Amino acid sequence: MEKPYLQVALDLLDLPRAVAIAEEALQGGADWIEVGTPLIKSEGMAAVRAMRERFPGHEIVADMKVADTGALEVEMAAKSGASIVCILADADDAVIAEAVRAARKYGVRLMADLINVADPVARSRELEAMGVDYINAHVGIDQQMIGKSSLDLLARLAGAVQIPIAVAGGLDAATASAAVQSGAAIVIVGGNIIRSADVAGSAERIRSAIDRPESRPPQAESPDAAVRRLLEAVSAPNISDAMHRKGAMTNLVSICGRVKMVGRAVTVRTIAGDWAKPVEAIDVAGEGDVLVVSSDGVTNVAPWGELATLSCRNRGIAGVVIDGAVRDVDDIRAMAFPLFARTAVPNAGEPKGLGEINTEIACCGQEVRPGDWIVGDESGVVVVPRERAYEIARRAVEVKKTEERIREEIRRGRSLAEVMELLKWEKR
After folding, report:
1. Would you tell me which of 92, 213, 417, 428 could form a disulfide with 177, CB atoms 3.0–4.6 Å apart?
2. How far apart are CA 378 and CA 45, in angstroms?
3. Which helix (H) or strand (E) holds 411?
C-alpha cells in the first residue's frame, strides 16, 4: 500500500447523522468510510446502502463482526455495497473459510478484527494463510477504558504477517502518527473524529499526522497524573454520566461559585462542629488532595472557617467538602477556594478532638474512602472509587466528546430531541 489510509468509524446509531458526519470527515481527508457495528445494529444494511449511494468513489467498510454464518453475512454486506467486510478473528475456522469463499465470489475483501484474541500473532498468521486480506489490531472501547492500548497490540504484530495491518482503538493525531511509525497501513479513528464539534478539522489533523509521522519519545506519566489530567478536563456531570448517574453527593453548594477541584480524598469524621480533626487533617493531607469532612449534616454550628481555608490554600490542598456548615464566607470567597458545604452559619464549634482521620465515612449520601478521587464544580461534587478512577475518567472524556458533537448540531439549528431522535429511542 502506497500510503496509510484513514478510515473513519461511524459508531453512531442514527443514519442521517452518520451520513452528515461521514461527509465532513471526507472533507477533512478521510479515505475509507466504516459503517460501524452500532450503526449496522441500529439501521441494518440500509446504512451500508446509503453510504455506497452517497459516496460511490470511496471504500465502504461494513463492520459486521461476523462470528457465524460467514457466507451469509459477507454476501449480505457485499450486495448492499460494502467493499470490505469485517469479521471476528476468533471466529471458528469454518466461519472464516466460508467468509473467504463468499468474499472471493462477490469481489470484496475481508478484515479480521483481533479484539479479545488470546494469541494475536499466531492467529494473524493463520488468518493470512486462510486468505484474509487485512488484520485489524483493535482494542475495544471497554478495554481502552481500563488502560489497554492498540499500539501495544500493533507492536506485537510487527513483521508477523505480510498482509496490511489496520489499527483501531482510541486513536488521536499523536497516537495515529505513532501507529504509522509502527507499521500500520490503515488507521481507524472513531470518537476523536465523529464526536468532534469540527469533524473536518479533526480529520484533517489526523490525516496530517499519518501523512507526516513524527518519532516522539513517549512521555512518562504516573497513574495518578493520568487520572488527574483526565478528571481536570471534564465536568462533574460528565463523570456522573460516565458512572451511570452514581457517585454524586447531595445538598451541597459551591461556596465560591465557579471553581473546580480534583484530588484524592483525605477523610475526616467529626461531631457537631468540633473543628479539631478537620484542622489536624490539613497537616495530614498532601498537595493536590481534597479534605472530605463528615459532620453528620449538622448545620447550626460550623467546623470550618476562613483560617482553616487559608491554611489549606497555603499547603496546596485542592479543595474541601463539608457535610455541614461553614462560616467566614465573605473571606473565603475572596480566596476563590474550592469549598463545598451544605450551608453557612456564623456559629463556630469547639476543638474537642472527637472523630477520626482517614477512615471510611459517609458524606452527603456517598461512601468515601481515603484515596478515592473527588471532583467538584458548580454543578456539585462526585466521588470516583479509587480502583476504577482511570476507567471512569476515560469514560467521562468520551461523554464530553459526545456532548461536543451534539452541541455543535444544536448550534446548526437542530433541537436536542431531533439530534437524539428521542421518539425513536423511547423505551418500548
Report:
1. 213
2. 45
3. helix 389-411
- Tens-place pLDDT, residues 229-282: 999 999 999 999 999 999 999 999 999 999 999 999 999 999 988 999 999 999
CATH code of residue 153:
3.20.20.70
- Counting Cβ atoms within 10 Å, is residue 106 exposed (0-12), middle (13-18) or buried (19+)? middle
Q: Is residue 259 part of a domain?
A: yes
Is residue 270 located within the same domain as residue 290?
A: yes
What is the residue range of 238's domain? 226-390
C-alpha cell at 153: 497490540
Q: What is the pLDDT of residues 30-46, one digit of tens each?
A: 999 999 999 999 999 99
Phi and psi of 50, rounded to 5°?
-65, -40
Domain-embedded: residue 71: yes
Among residues 181, 139, 184, 187, which one has the least CA distance to residue 164? 184
Residues 196 and 252 in one domain: no
HSE (CB half, 13 Å, CA atoms) of 412? 12
260 and 304 co-located in one domain: yes
- Examine the domain organization and report whether 147 and 242 are in the same domain: no
Which residues, 6+ apart, have CB-to-CB distance to 320 below 8 Å?
Answer: 290, 291, 292, 293, 304, 308, 309, 312, 337, 338, 339, 340
Enumerate the β-bridge partners of residue 75: none
Using alpha carbons, select from 123, 119, 152, 147 the residue that is nearest to residue 135.
123
Distance CA 133, CA 144 (A): 26
Domain shared by 247 and 337, yes or no? yes
